[in-house]
Amino acid sequence: MIKVVLADDEAMIRAGVRAILATDPEIEVVAEAGDGREAVELALACRPDVVLLDVRMPGLDGLGAAAEIRRTLPDTGVVMLTTFGEDEYIARALGAGAGGFLLKSGDPRELIAGVRAVAGGAAYLSPEVAHRVITRLDRGRMRRAADARSRTEGLTPRERDVLALLGAGLSNAQIGTRLHLVEGTVKAHVSAILARLGVGNRVQAAILAYEADLVEPGSSSGVTNGVTSGVTSPTRTRSP
């Protein structure tokens, strides 16, 4: 069962999100919060698999709550849910350690897919958000590609294999299956990769993999392909 803490300052929005998540028998909303500070407190108390946060809330907003949750509960995934798709919010959310970013105006199936993906250790961006990210990546891509290749050259061949699959949106369990490794070994590789690349989360590592051309064409990517990319089987091991 995937345990979720839901935070939004609008009760009607919380009711709607809860109803959508309730259609999946493997997802359970265990607590609700009306602001970011309460969300952090409930996350500490409930230790959920995923915290679903609205970006704009009174007091501590969703971005601040995401950073606090990722700092204190590294095994808990964070998904941002908002009506705003501006680049500033996307960049700040990913920088705060969010593993997913969804728009409230999107298809309800994206909500379930995003929660499942982040609970399974993968990254997930809604199609509109993914388009914005890729558009930003394409600007000055040659310079960033050179930098990304330089940063990934220090990885071992096995770490590069793991990074490529991470960039394709695979969870730790899926990477282990593909490379014939136990999940704990994959987790150790991911931790080493994040440290060597100097990035804070899987989304940032996936973007580096994309920029370094490590992701094979046609791979299902949690950064580039929206809904179909993020759906993974739920697992209790998510972080790193």
From TrEMBL:
Protein name, per record: DNA-binding response regulator
UniProt region (Disordered), positions on chain: 218-240
Residue numbers bearing the 4-aspartylphosphate modification: 54
Superkingdom: Bacteria
A single BP term in Gene Ontology: phosphorelay signal transduction system
Keyword flag DNA-binding: yes
Domain HTH luxR-type: residue ranges: 148-213
Pfam families attached to this UniProt entry: GerE (PF00196), Response_reg (PF00072)
Species: Planotetraspora phitsanulokensis
Keywords annotated in UniProt: DNA-binding, Phosphoprotein, Transcription, Transcription regulation
One MF annotation (Gene Ontology) recorded for this entry: DNA binding
InterPro entries: CheY-like_superfamily, NreC/VraR/RcsB-like_REC, Sig_transdc_resp-reg_C-effctor, Sig_transdc_resp-reg_receiver, Tscrpt_reg_LuxR_C, WalR-like
CDD domains membership: LuxR_C_like, REC_NarL-like
Residue ranges with Low complexity bias: 218-233
Domain Response regulatory: 3-119
